Amino acid sequence: MNQVIDSILILLTLTGFVLLGSSRLAACIKAVGIQGALLGLLALVVQSGDLSITGVVLALIGATVKGILLPVLLFRAMREADTTREVEPLISFNLSVLAGALELAMSLWIGRHLRLPADPVSSFFVPAAIFTILAGLLVIVSRRKAITQVIGYLMLENGVYVFGTAVALRMPVLVELGILLDVFVGVFVMGIAVFHISRQFDHIDSLRLASLNDRV
Amino acid sequence: MAGLLLSIALFGAGAAGALIFANHGRWTTYAGVGGVVAGCAVGIVPALRAALGGPVESIHAGWAVPYGSFFLRLDALSGFFLLPVFAICPLAAIYGAGYLEAFRPKKSLAPPWFLFNLLAASMAMVIVARNGLLFLAAWEMMALSSLFLVTFEDEKEEVRRAGWIYLVASHAGTAFLFALFILLGRAHGSLDFDRFDASAGTGLLFALALIGFGTKAGFVPLHVWLPQAHPAAPSHVSAVMSAVMINTGIYGLLRVFTLIGPLPAWCGWLLCVVGILSALTGALHALAQRDLKRLLAYSSVENAGIIALGIGVGLIGIASKSPLVACAGFAGGLLHLLNHSLFKSLLFLTAGAVVHGSHTRDLDRLGGLLKRMPVTGVLFAVGAVAVSALPPLNGLIGEFLVYLASLRGIAEFDGGGLTVLVSAFAALAAAGGFAAVAFAKAFGIAFLGHPRSESAEHARDPGWTMLAPATVLAAACALAGSFGARLVAAIAPLIASITGMPDAKSYLSGAANAVAHVAFVGGALAGISLVVMAARSRLLAGRKVRSALTWDCGYYRPAPRMQYTGSSFVQPLTAAFAAVLGTRIRVIEPRGLFPSDASLTTEARDPYQDRLFASLFGAIGRGLSMLRPLQQGLVQLYVLYIAITLIALLLWQFA
Lengths: 216, 655
Known about the structure:
The complex is a heterodimer of chains A (about 220) and B (about 650).
Chain A: H1 2-21, H2 25-46, H3 53-81, H4 93-113, H5 125-142, H6 146-167, H7 172-194, H8 197-201
Chain B: H1 2-20, H2 27-51, E1 57-62, E2 69-74, H3 76-101, H4 110-128, H5 132-150, H6 157-186, H7 202-217, H8 226-232, H9 235-260, H10 265-288, H11 292-319, H12 323-358, H13 369-372, H14 374-387, H15 395-412, H16 416-447, H17 454-457, H18 464-482, H19 484-490, H20 492-499, H21 504-540, H22 566-569, H23 571-576, H24 578-581, E3 583-588, E4 599-604, H25 607-625, H26 635-654
Antiparallel strand pairs in B: 1-2, 3-4
């Protein structure tokens, strides 16, 4: 069973790298969707010893929201905002991947030192979670478009979810809160699509929203 | 205790009612005033019983907040401090109903009535709370509700500025209180007052309390917010803030003192020095003001100083095991506090009537109001006599006891205590003199002579809603002055509980006798004056009275502009103390044979604010503006800051 969990976690990490390295917006959305689906699977596998209906339902809802609903919304947002289909990074893709590798190293180091109340099933749980969080932050920080910010935010949230499943067989509230956060991101995405930030501001370049700052 | 809870609930109902009836014209006023009056009427009974030494009652219930508990206790000290709250607030509220009526076409009156109820409730709560968190919550509620009352006329630039200064000052003070309570509760891991201990060192705790509570009480140099905020507020709010709210600062100090037990002698000396500084600074600045309400605010600083002086002398008395000095000092401070509440609210209410009638607070634009507003004028005169500590009114009682205590101490002590007490005695006398001049100026310039402006010309007495509360207060001042000895005897149980000297009553009996003599002589003087006045009017009754110019120094037809102004009246004193006053004088001297323009402007500034705090906050501002480049308005950058912080924390945790 541990092997399945480990492979899921490794896949998760790899999709993180895909997200950091790909220049196509569509690929990024797909990658984040795959991450979502993997998370649902992970939640199922982790509790496979004693499956409960609540657990299964929660895992399925999570997988549906993260793996299907949000990617669909993101695709729609991308179409409706009518922007170029490319990620506009502030740092080069190579540099992003390199930074990602550094983050992975750090996550492994932290994973070795972090003491949890109960030991997780796999020792790769914590590094994968922290890497996903950090990679999400990196995406938010280093990309221009509002839509990539949403993707980064989703990734960050995926990391939190992984962390939750690592410690949280007995903490269902945390997982449910994760789903609430997903709904929030969903609303956020809808905001972009429905209210057409692109039309209001003639662009969806978050850098240019800086003119709203309150500097004197 | 149930009465007290009911009273707080009534305040809550008044606050809610004011909001509910926001769109029903006068009903919001009725709800607001009704809440305050009903709450105070219900609350004053248990407060009085407790203040006179009745049984101590308490409530201890849980509260979901960490370290918090709903712990209330009503003992003699709390009861005593509740009295001004429950006595002044309803009078101020009734007055406010008339005062705010003029604003009704322009502004909604729901917020001020909501906040006024909240202020009354939070002051009562502060005084009975016995848990650190509950206390701080009430303290903060009191600060915020009074802040928004101060900024009622927020369309005026000066009011917004005053509110800002007040906000900063009260939060800075509260920060020290947080430190104080954390240190007090550290040893037992509980913020309930009865589990506090002084393991952190009584000196440090006393210093924290002195700064934190001293800011609210208006001790120099922490007073700078007070002359800004009190005049800016509507007058009934100024009255409550000046006469009642600053008491909570004194209450806090005394409460901390009763919690941490005997203090070293230097604490008493320090409090005396603070008191001396406040009394002198307050009185001198009151002298120099042109703004009537600001003059009153500085006078509050002076009186807070006198109260601090009394308590300081009392602390020295305890530290030197001299029961007479201790009891008379505390009794003097506390009675002065009570009397200050009465006459300061009277003064603010009458000053508000002046503002209401003449639309200006500038003394140099007033004048001749005694003929135009006779009732207000007489009431203001009563307050002015009381605040100048002249018999037979109540201002003298407390000061007299402080005099007695320091005299006694001068006879008993030597060394540092002697020096402090001699200075206290001298400062008290000097401050009293300055205050008398300041109020001679305030009354003389505003009420005597001729009007100095068009608006003062047309001033009239306000309606009964504004006059009745002030009349009640004036009567209370006279009564308290006449029965001073009874007051001294009545607070003996309270003094016994503060000083831990069960025989306080016998120690105070000598002082009570002296006060009775003073009241008798004062009453006799007042009686003789009344007889003379009656005789005069009797003699003049059948005759023709003609009014004419007095000797006019050769100036035929004097114009109102030729009268003494407030600034010229006190010029000899302000010139003598120019170094500490910081009054700005701009003169354009007349030049040539036919001088065309010449002018003289004086502006009373506060040097503590101008020099001390302006440079302090300027330095802080300059330091913080170096962080400006961090703020670029880019989401990416902000997330980066968060990420860096997160990573740094993780690394710091494991490295």
